[in-house]
Amino acid sequence: MVNYPPEPFRIKMVEPIKMIDRQTREAALKRANYNVFGLRAEEIFIDLLTDSGTGAMSQHQWSAMMEGDESYAGANSYFRLAEAMREIFGFRFFVPTHQGRAAENILCAVALGEGEYIPSNMHFDTTEGNIRARGGRPTNLVIDEAFDPGNRHPFKGNMDIDKLRAFIEEVGVDKVPFGMITITNNAGGGQPVSMENLKAVADVYKEYEIPFFIDACRFAENAYFIKLREPGYENKTTLEIAQETFALADGATMSAKKDAIVNIGGFLAMNDEGLFQKVKNELILREGFPTYGGLAGRDLDAIATGLREGLDEDYLAYRLGQTAYLGKKLLEVGIPIVEPPGGHAVYIDAGSLLAHIPPADFPGQSLAVELYLEGGIRGVELGSVAFAYPDPSTGETIHPKMELVRLAIPRRVYTQAHMDYIVKTFEKIKARQERIRGYRITYAPELLRHFTAQFEPIG
Ligand SMILES: *Cc1c(COP(=O)(O)O)cnc(C)c1O
């Protein structure tokens, strides 16, 4: 039994949502060429496309925004953010950026050369893109358990330490300008990384004198997983766990749209002063002056407040409890998911739910379409539409290891009744599962095709 934790907030402003009728949903899907990215927000009842920038800010964040200082240089808002940064992350230097990918772009611009390798447990797609855009080679070294949906390893985001060591030896330490780890592992199902593993990764990087950067988007959810699951941490606060985490690293990138619960923002932090000089120059060229970095002063205040709220343990118990509740309820009605559920999302194993649809006919795509048709719910396919690619030598299509549909849960937005409604929708889909058909692609761009691909139903 998983209990639904009562929301540790009450609602004083509401955003109406409306379920349009089935015929209108069918027409909307057709117009969007069966790609849910092409739907308008008003056509959706429950939007689980992403947890990025979709959270609800608190009254404290909104009132902090009213005190935003819009001075071009040296704004009070910057110093309030700097204080939160010092307390939680403790790096000597940081710059605000407009999103996580801007931080990644700047880091790669100043620290990565053509043909160099960046290891991680798993890079998120924007990180991977930014490394590749500079001629670098992103490399994923997560433990094998990450690819087994039924394996209930408590820290499925862990890096494989032997693989990391072997990898550095193989490519040569001078080809690795910095190393990373993503907490939690978004691309691998929002799975956490243990403190033990973080320490082991830091030790390897230190041994080879490779600077260690943490992709910290969901550092607070990761800290709470450590508190819940790792012996020795049950009595530490999430703030203490976060401090211990970042003390292991030389820097971090973060999208504040995740665990800082804001609609826009991010940062790049580091200890190395020489690197900071280069970062500042690149930032001024691309983003803005180092005390605002492409954001408004009020955004900096919202982040400063949100970083602390994101670490609140009542909030985190509710946050991870809500995700666990949805995962558990789906399992109870026979919907296969990636277990255990991660922090920010539940991943449906569409490949096994719709086992009669081969990967080439995109079972995840079928499920994403059915979710919208049946319940006005928007999830996202993360299977062969997003990740299949042609083998460079044979031209044969290589399918990913799993055909998934991600249900990402916005922070502080939906209630238990919404979660129950999602489960009911899945029950209805399951009742007619063998009649669900696959899709074929009628148009696709070469890169990141899931955003704009067009489809038609088969048969
Ligand atoms: C969202 C995300 C990013 C990129 O952040 P944006 O703000 O979307 O640019 C990078 N890494 C991880 C793990 C993310 O979840």
Determine and state the CATH class of the largest domain.
Answer: Alpha Beta
Biggest sheet: strands, sense, closure?
Answer: 5 strands, mixed
In round numbers, the mean pLDDT is 96
The name of the CATH topology of the largest domain is Aspartate Aminotransferase, domain 2
The hetero molecules present are: pyridoxal-5'-phosphate
Structural class: alpha/beta
Main attributes?
459 residues; alpha/beta; Aspartate Aminotransferase, domain 1; Aspartate Aminotransferase, domain 2; five-stranded mixed β-sheet; three-stranded antiparallel β-sheet; globular; binds pyridoxal-5'-phosphate
Structure description:
This protein is of the alpha/beta class and 459 residues long. It has two domains: 22-51 and 313-457, Aspartate Aminotransferase, domain 1 (Alpha-Beta Complex); 59-309, Aspartate Aminotransferase, domain 2, CATH 3.40.640.10. Helices cover 40% and strands 13% of the residues. A five-stranded mixed β-sheet has the order 2-8-7-6-5. Strands 9-14-11 form a three-stranded antiparallel β-sheet. The protein has a two-stranded parallel ribbon with strand order 1-10. Strand 5, helix 7 (195-207) and strand 6 form a beta-alpha-beta unit. Helix 12 (313-332) runs parallel beside helix 16 (416-431). It is globular. The two termini are 42 Å apart. The mean pLDDT is 96. It binds pyridoxal-5'-phosphate (PLP). Pyridoxal-5'-phosphate (PLP) is lined by residues 52, 99-101, 124, 126-127, 182, 186, 215, 217, 255, 257-258, 266.
